Amino acid sequence: MVWCSGWRLASAVSNNGGLGLIGVGSMHPEVLQEHIRKTKIATNKPFGVNIPLLYPNIEQLIEIILHEEVKIVFTSAGSPKKWTSILQQHGIVVTHVVSSAEFAAKSEAAGVDAIVAEGFEAGGHNGREETTTLALIPSVRKVSSLPLIAAGGIATGKAMLATMILGADGVQIGSRFAISEESSAHANFKNYVIKAKEGDTLLSLKGLTPVRLLRNKFFESIQQAEKSGASAESLIHLLGKGRAKKGIFEGDLDEGELEIGQVSSLIGQILPVSEIIKELLDEYEKGRTEIQNNSLYQFNNE
Predict the structure, then answer these.
(1) What is the pLDDT of residues 115-133, one digit of tens each?
(2) Is the same domain home to 254 and 278?
(3) Which of 183, 186, 242, 289 is the least buried, fewest Cβ under 10 Å from its Cβ?
(4) For 182-228, how does the pLDDT look when each residue is reduced to its tens digit (9 = 90+)?
(5) Which long-range contacts (C-beta less than 8 Å, at least 24 apart) are formed by 30-37?
(6) Are residues 50 and 85 in the same domain?
């Protein structure tokens, strides 16, 4: 949710019954502090932050999280072993994001309180295993007894229900909220996403860190470079700095890095968070009722 989930989106999700998360991946320490304080003003409900552990200013960011007494932290992009106990000593609930059952087991051994299992349908940076959510959730459930949150490819209430049947206790939804009214993403990016069709996102930059992107001029240049056997150094040079900011936050649809999940083809309009959550819950309940009333389901569970 880089460049999408600031205090407006996080507080709106929390105010409407979800757990809003501030996306720290695009924030300098002073910006994170500002967003935490604004979120506290905008909601009296629980909220958290999502912090990539490989971030250059990780020590400063952790210090701000502790100072501001954030109660829930989702960690990603790195091993949770070093920081989990430090955060927990300050009464913080720690959830770690993984893309494989192997890393789920390691995260549990590191002492995290819960796990987010994210399939490769997800937008942004992704696991090299390319395991889909449908396969990942039951696989993680086998190796971990911790509370399990499903992520990747979830944009509807029925998708929520499907992950629960597979063993998840909850869901984490990114792309659907990245295109909400409260998202800090640029209008150009939001409108580009809602026009996306099936197959318009692909996993790219596998020679560096895999990331799911929408097709555009920059994406095509990366694809061509990879097909030509470009080295990691060449890809880094081509990527440059600030690509995601340029595309998502500044709205450059040609040269920006447009990170979004496969579910972009299911997002047809820009809605406020309140309507998105209502749609999700209504469809979830409808789907659950349909399953309960299905005679085949009843037969199989007698």
Answers:
(1) 999 999 998 888 788 899 9
(2) no
(3) 289
(4) 999 999 999 999 999 999 999 888 878 888 999 999 999 998 988 88
(5) 32/61, 32/64, 32/65, 33/64, 33/67, 33/68, 34/7, 35/6, 35/7, 35/10, 36/7, 36/64, 36/65, 36/68, 36/70, 37/68
(6) yes
